[in-house]
């Protein structure tokens, strides 16, 4: 993986090499192995006068994974009319390379970067349709005086941009863009609202006005005419491709055949993602997703797989999956390593984590992800991780609850609200389960979805922000946002999976893994998000993903024979931290010092009395507000880091 950045100036202003150098060096953690700069001054646009010049500059920081000797960037084609900076891996690059050689293209390197250059010469911007991988790249075509920027299908690799008609700036992380701006943009209040509810900010927006995320599966063509955006893929296409290429119509309900093809495809993905000129390993939680990846790696690798797990310093067994990780490690004879997260790590690492978050993400799992990445980097440079399986195959509780909702809403409202809801309130102790069950009463899908995933509900937002008109307007916009995504993709379950893949997966889970792994100079690969796995997964009928109340039914059927029984039979568990207990005990002073005296109040967005009430309720044990507190702490540190 790498860090990329660049500037396209339409006014012909000379670009300072020192500025590009500062931008690329702000991304040094993403690429500690090498660096490079390209500057093209005075590139004249045909038919234009003196004002028809554009200036373009690229910066690159390299993490060397493939072709360690000759894969440096920026990289050029043969006549140097096309130049690229690129972050990612194209897993089918060898196949593409052979086809390009047959067509007469000559290669100077063995890198996948050069394949992108030559494929662009063949296909123009549509070259991205051929790539199976994780990528974000920028390519300058000097003949056309055009910049092409692109991002992979699911949004595994990041790309941010700023555009104001006079200048276009892009980078792997916002920090590099901020280096090129005279002053920081204003905070986008709508994005702050969405962060508080969702715990992340959906693309294309960021917490800053005028800085955006390039949408997944998108190319952007930038020149003096402006910006042209093209979406080159969508999930509906994957469904059709998967059904056409993998399974005949008569086989769509054949569990045995689907299971066979699914395991074969996942195995192919893992095998392709073992291509590397440096050492590899795997994150191992002891869950079925990560254990399957380790099982398939063990079959393909000559030496024991290096595996990495994280546990927590707590007596509560709910929060520690290390026993299951050890079961998997022993079963597959891995070279296993563990790290324990302690309360003091929250204190020590919160500022570090905030420094590496472009947009704030209210996900406590960021901390253990950072720490296990730090551990893995001591032993390997590439890690395989299990993100995406839950969203493809139906792993979350809310997927089951949506099926219940259609029946629950048939019960008369008087009985629901007068008898069932009070009963649920009395017996459910788990906050997320309680929240999910209470969402069942929402008849509109978008309102139900928001209620499932929300951190701050509407009442708490009214108290926290104190602007009821703004809240109602933004709540309506958020509902509209989800209504637009909800396309009727198949049945209800597949539409929810579609929504999570387009939002939660890309803007929370994958962002978290990218930032925390790259903060440690570690490349993370995600085999379940290989193009072919997505194709087949989205062609599988939803009733085989959740059968009755068995979530991930067909996935478990496909992989059960290659895993130990203890792993297959264990129930789904989220990657949770014991922060509710820690905030009331070991970290109580830490929390109160940061949220009751200065920083939160200095922001000017939140009611101090509402923050105080949130803290008091949690400390007294009246309610579990730990995720809300974590979210405010994240904002505290994010603002501290970004005021500089």
Specify the number of helices.
27
Q: Strand count, sense and closure of the main sheet?
A: 6 strands, antiparallel
Using only CA atoms, what is the Rg? Answer: 25 Å
**What is the SS-derived class?**
alpha+beta
- How big a fraction of the residues is strand? 15-25%
Helical content band: 40-55%
Query: Average pLDDT value?
Result: 89
User: Segments where pLDDT lies below 50 for 5+ residues?
Assistant: 246-250
Side by side, the strands of the main sheet go: 2-3-1-9-8-10
Shape: globular
Strand element count: 17
Describe the structure.
This protein has 644 residues and is an alpha+beta fold. Helix content is 46%, strand content 16%. It is built from 27 helices and 17 strands. The strands form three sheets. The chain has a six-stranded antiparallel beta sheet with strand order 2-3-1-9-8-10, with helices on one face. The chain has a six-stranded antiparallel beta sheet with strand order 4-5-6-7-11-12, covered by helices on one side. Helix 7 crosses helix 21 (553-559). It is globular and about 75 Å long. It starts with a strand and ends with a helix. Residues 246-250 have low confidence and may be disordered.
């Amino acid at each position: 993986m790498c860090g990329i950045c660049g500037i396209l100036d339409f006014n012909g202003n000379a670009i300072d090499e020192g500025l590009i150098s500062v931008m690329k060096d702000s991304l040094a953690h993403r690429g500690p192995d090498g660096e490079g700069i390209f500057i093209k001054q005075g590139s004249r646009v045909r038919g234009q006068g003196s004002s028809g010049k554009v200036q373009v500059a690229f910066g690159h920081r390299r993490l060397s994974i493939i072709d360690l000797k000759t894969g440096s960037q920026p990289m050029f084609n043969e006549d140097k009319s096309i130049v690229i900076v690129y972050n990612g891996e194209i897993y089918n690059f060898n196949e593409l390379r052979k086809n390009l050689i047959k067509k007469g293209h000559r290669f100077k390197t063995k890198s996948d970067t050069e394949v992108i250059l030559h494929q662009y010469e063949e296909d123009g911007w549509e070259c991205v349709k051929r790539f199976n991988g994780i990528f974000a790249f920028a390519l300058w075509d000097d003949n056309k005086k055009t910049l092409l920027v692109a991002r992979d299908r699911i949004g595994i690799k990041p790309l941010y941009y700023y555009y104001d008609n006079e200048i276009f700036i892009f980078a792997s992380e916002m920090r590099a863009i901020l280096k090129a701006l005279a002053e920081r943009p204003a905070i986008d209040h709508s994005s702050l609202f969405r962060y508080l509810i969702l715990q992340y900010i959906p693309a294309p927006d960021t917490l800053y006005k005028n800085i955006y995320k390039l949408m997944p599966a998108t190319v952007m063509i930038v020149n003096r005419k402006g910006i042209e955006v093209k979406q080159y893929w969508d999930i509906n296409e994957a469904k059709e491709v998967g059904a056409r290429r993998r399974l005949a119509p008569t086989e769509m309900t054949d569990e045995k055949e689907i299971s066979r093809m699914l395991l074969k495809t996942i195995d192919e993905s893992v095998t392709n993602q073992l291509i590397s000129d440096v050492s590899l390993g795997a994150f191992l939680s002891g869950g079925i997703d990560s254990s399957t990846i380790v099982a398939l790696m063990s079959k393909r690798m000559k030496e024991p797989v290096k595996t990495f797990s994280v546990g927590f310093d707590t007596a509560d067994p709910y929060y520690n999956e290390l026993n299951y990780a050890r079961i998997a490690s022993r079963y597959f004879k891995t070279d296993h390593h563990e790290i324990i997260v302690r309360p003091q790590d929250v204190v020590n690492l919160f500022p570090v984590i905030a420094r590496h978050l472009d947009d704030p993400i209210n996900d406590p799992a960021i901390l253990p992800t950072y720490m296990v990445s730090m551990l893995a980097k001591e032993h390997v440079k590439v890690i395989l991780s299990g993100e995406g399986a839950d969203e493809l195959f139906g792993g979350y509780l809310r997927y089951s609850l949506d099926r219940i909702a259609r029946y629950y809403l048939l019960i008369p409202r008087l009985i629901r609200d007068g008898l069932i809801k009070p009963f649920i309130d009395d017996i459910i102790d788990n906050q997320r389960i309680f929240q999910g069950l209470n969402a069942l009463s929402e008849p509109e899908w978008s309102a139900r979805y928001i209620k499932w995933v929300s951190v701050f509900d509407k009442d708490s937002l009214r108290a926290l922000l104190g602007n009821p008109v703004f809240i109602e307007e933004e709540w309506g916009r958020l509902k509209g946002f989800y209504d637009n995504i909800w396309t009727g993709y198949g049945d209800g379950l597949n539409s929810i999976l579609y929504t999570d893949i387009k939002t939660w997966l890309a803007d929370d889970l994958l962002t978290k893994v990218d930032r925390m792994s790259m903060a440690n100079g570690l490349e993370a690969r995600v085999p379940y998000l290989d193009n072919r796995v997505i194709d087949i997964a989205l062609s599988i009928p939803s009733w085989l993903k959740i059968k009755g109340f068995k979530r991930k039914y067909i996935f478990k059927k496909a992989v059960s024979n290659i895993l130990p029984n203890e792993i297959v039979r264990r129930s789904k568990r989220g990657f949770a931290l014991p922060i509710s207990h820690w905030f009331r005990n070991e970290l109580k002073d830490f929390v109160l010092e940061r949220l009751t005296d200065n920083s939160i109040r200095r922001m000017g967005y939140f009611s101090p009395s509402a923050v105080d009430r949130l803290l008091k309720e949690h400390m007294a044990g009246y309610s579990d507000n730990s995720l809300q507190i974590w979210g405010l702490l994240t904002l505290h540190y994010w603002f501290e880091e970004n005021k500089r």
